[in-house]
Amino acid sequence: MRRFRQRMELVGMDGFSDYRSYLEAEPREVAALFDTILINVTGFFRDSATWELVAHDVIPRILREAGAEREIRVWSAGCATGEEAFTVAILFAEAVGMDTFRERVKIYATDLDEDALREARAAAYPESKVEDVPEELRERYFQSQDGQLVFRSDVRRAVIFGRNDLLQDPPISRVDLLVSRNTLMYFGPLAQTRILSNFHFALNDSGFLVLGPAEALTSRASLFVPYDLKRRVFVPNPAASSERPARGRAYAAAEPLSGERPLEDAAFQQAPMAEIIVDAAGNIAFLNQPARTLFGLRTSDIGRPLQDLEVSYRPLELRSVIEQAYGESRTISISEVDWMYDEGRTRYLDIQVAPLHSHGGEVLGVAASFIDVTGARALKDELEEKRRQLETAYEELQSTVEELETTNEELQSANEELETTNEELQSTNEELETINEELQSTNEELEAMNDELRERTDEALTSNAHLGAILASIPQIVVVVDSKLRVTAWSANAADLWGLRADEAAGEHVLDLEIGVPMHALRDPIRVALAGEQPEPVELSGHDRRGNALACSISFAPLTNHVGSVTGAVLIMAAERV
């Protein structure tokens, strides 16, 4: 709700009904809302204590169970931008060595957010995101490139990124280590139950499940038991039943081929393409000879679940294509799937997955056909290369002709350019002379302004000295205040009588001065003077700075400017000792 309201505030929507209408009218807002809801918060070696347990305890146990040859499979569910998947890769590479890692370890990293997966596949991170990687490992597994740190490419190839909806898509099977940190906490209890069932199905009996520090197995807890509860590491409960995860619908088992149709059986077995028939329950129903040769399968594999065989995920994730064929009730075709096999050689396959129906329309299973188009792809690539070479040769010939034509034009224009350059130089010289004259004129104006400013400064100094002399010559005490009753002038007699210098009195509120007479009694007369009227003189008693008693008579007059406006008041004081 918080993230929904965040988007609503950004687009200026007050209610949910208005926001729904806005979503229907603005498809781009749907993508923005989706990115806001998906919280891709991750990091390398996040919660270091958990990764220390994985490195020093979990991985050694997995290696002992796998023996010296079995492939090690890891699933990072909710991988976001890939930091945790690469963390697992670093730990396994450190544990088994680089050569063994490349041969035996496969890490499947999945997420629902395509933008996050795109960043993960790039494997390039700013330095701030790699700070938590120990310096020794950082130097070994990262290279600086264009201001970013890029994960080591040969280790990166062992990490396979793909989109997977934990609630809808089948899980990855035969997993030794399943890392799903801070993903379950965004699902409700029912969704967690389904996801944990899928996780239990995906893990080997000796596998490990690593969750985030904020997650607890409140749902379907019987499927797992704690291995290290503090660090949220769990193992499958051997007493729990290994339930197959739901696939969304149940399909009837495929009908077996009749042994009384040898011609059809022979045609299927000797077809020029590899074909695999999978029944509605997800088990291998039939394999022809090309399929057994191509994928190294055996007749004994018939009846086994497809997900237990390597062909289910290599050369492509076959189970998701089968689900798509079921869901859309049509043949799904994928062209030129590249498949690296046998010491790095690549084979290209056209793959078709077609649903099989009975006469009554009942779904029996699917037929997966694999057509080897490696030779055609090689011819296509060679033809494309020849075409590019021909186009390049033609372009080079055409370019040569054009260069000959342009060379003649360039020679003809060179003389014109030289003449033009001479005229431009002459014009530039004239412009420089004009600029010099303008600079001289500007300098003269600045000098005149400087002289005028100096004269006005002298006049101001003379006026200030004259005013000071006048104030010093008047025998009475003269005090001038502005419209806010702040002192602007304080005569020398005032300073001598009360001991307050002019610079100390300047800017002070006249009624706040403590000079030996009750100044607060002057408030009303001063305000009358500020109103432009002539108030009556005021008689006050007090004492001077030496403590002598005084009788002080104070007169008031408005202070006006050159246009007749009252800007302050003048106080003239006559003081006598008593």
Q: What descriptors fit this protein?
A:
Beta-Lactamase; single chain; Rossmann fold; 578 residues; alpha+beta; 7-stranded mixed beta sheet; 5-stranded antiparallel beta sheet; 5 domains
Walk me through this protein's architecture.
This protein is of the alpha+beta class and 578 residues long. It has five domains: 2-37, no CATH class; 48-236, Rossmann fold, CATH 3.40.50.150; 262-372, PAS domain (Beta-Lactamase), CATH 3.30.450; 381-417; 471-577, Beta-Lactamase, CATH 3.30.450. The protein has 17 helices and 20 strands. Strands 6-2-1-7-8-10-9 form a seven-stranded mixed beta sheet. The chain has a five-stranded antiparallel beta sheet with strand order 12-11-15-14-13, sandwiched between helices. A five-stranded antiparallel beta sheet has the order 17-16-20-19-18. A hairpin with a 5-residue loop joins strand 19 (549-560) and strand 20. The model is unreliable at 242-260 (pLDDT under 50).
